[in-house]
Design a protein that fits this description.
about 350 residues; alpha/beta; Rossmann fold; seven-stranded mixed sheet; five-stranded mixed sheet; 14 strands; globular
């Protein structure tokens, strides 16, 4: 039976991972996600799990690779500068076809930036997480409850498609507290992976974890095979929430914390007679382009709101494909936009 508790976002991510069958965590502290690692440090020894604070983010992600190759559910967490350090290891995970859960509780950047919430890692997560023809699943929660739910989804799809998954949160979501329904841990068992390097006693062909292909034709074949999985994901797992979009002239697109603020602005716009609606991408990759394409047939204009100088707006423009204009409003550097600011941007378009 599920139980409802009040939890901070970072701690909810950790508890959800444990309930989803994760018993291996490797990380390094960085604000604003340190509570997640601290929660794991406290809980893992009590349940027979492994918690290890590595000497660096680089070491942590390579420990994740080793654990994943053995077939266990494993995760790491960090914030923006730390994810940059992990990017090489994430590329190796992708190249080795290994699942893992990576949490990014975003903060302002570039460089060390600040410790306030940000959303300027969208390009990194969806475009440049690692060299080569690399993709990973990217999910963007906007509530603490959704943080819990998406942890389960990330592990499930990561295992199914043998690829890492990232939950792209931010400092606002990580630090806020909300009531959540925690699922039953009994429903979170994972099957033994037939590809795992977990020993065989001579009873099967040995498994090898590898991302090096010296034969270019073999590498090309492997990349094409991986692309088929990406295509299947793109066709079947685009996730988004719609709010007042049925008759909307102005569609606001926003994810994560920005979507929470944008939702309030849409309600305020409706109260003064402006037909605004909200399209909230939940999966950032695969991006819900099909939903935007459908809405572009009836909407007059799109407004993308982000805590950045404008990154997701490029994907919105690609999906709209020039059929309707796409405008942008953003705050950056750790500044959270207000409903009043977004309402002003909506009024300007109306």
């Amino acid at each position: 039976m599920s139980n409802k508790v009040l939890m901070k976002g970072n701690e909810a991510l950790a508890e959800a991972a444990i309930l989803a069958g994760c018993r291996h965590f490797f990380g390094y502290p960085i604000t604003p996600q340190t509570e997640l690692a601290a929660y794991m440090a406290k809980k893992m020894p009590k349940i027979g799990g492994v918690y290890l604070q590595a000497e660096s983010e680089v070491a942590a992600i390579n420990m994740v690779l080793g654990a994943s190759s053995a077939g266990v559910r494993v995760m790491t967490s960090s914030s923006s500068p730390g994810i940059s350090l992990k990017s090489e290891g994430i590329s190796y995970l992708i190249g080795s076809d290994l699942p893992a859960l990576i949490i990014n509780v975003q903060r302002g950047g570039p460089g060390l930036g600040g410790i306030q919430p940000g959303q300027a890692d969208y390009y990194q997560a969806t475009r440049g997480i690692g060299h080569g023809d690399a993709r990973l699943l990217v999910f963007a929660p906007s509530t603490v409850q959704e943080m819990v739910d998406l942890v389960f989804k990330a592990f499930e799809l990561g295992d199914k498609y043998r690829m890492p998954a990232m939950i792209l949160a931010d400092g606002m979501l990580g630090q806020m507290m909300e009531p959540v329904e925690l699922p039953d841990a009994a429903a979170a068992t994972s099957e033994r992976k037939t590809w795992a390097t977990d020993g065989h006693g001579g009873k099967r062909k040995k498994n090898i974890t590898n991302s090096l292909y010296l034969d270019p034709y073999l590498l090309e074949k492997t990349i094409h095979e991986r692309r088929l999985r990406y295509d299947e994901l793109n066709a079947g797992y685009q996730m988004a929430e719609e709010f007042y979009t049925d008759d909307a002239d102005i569609i606001v697109t926003a994810y994560g914390a920005s979507a929470r603020v944008s939702r309030s602005a849409v309600v305020m716009a409706r109260e003064i007679g402006i037909k605004a609606g909200l399209l909230r991408p939940i999966s950032l990759w695969p991006f819900p382009a099909s939903v935007i394409q459908r809405l572009s047939a009836s909407a007059k204009v799109f407004l993308t709101v982000e805590m950045s100088m404008g990154q997701m707006v490029d994907d919105v423009r690609l999906a709209v494909n020039g059929v309707k204009p796409v405008d942008f409003f953003g705050r950056t550097g750790g500044v959270i936009p207000t409903p009043a600011e977004i309402l002003t941007a909506i009024k300007n378009l109306a």
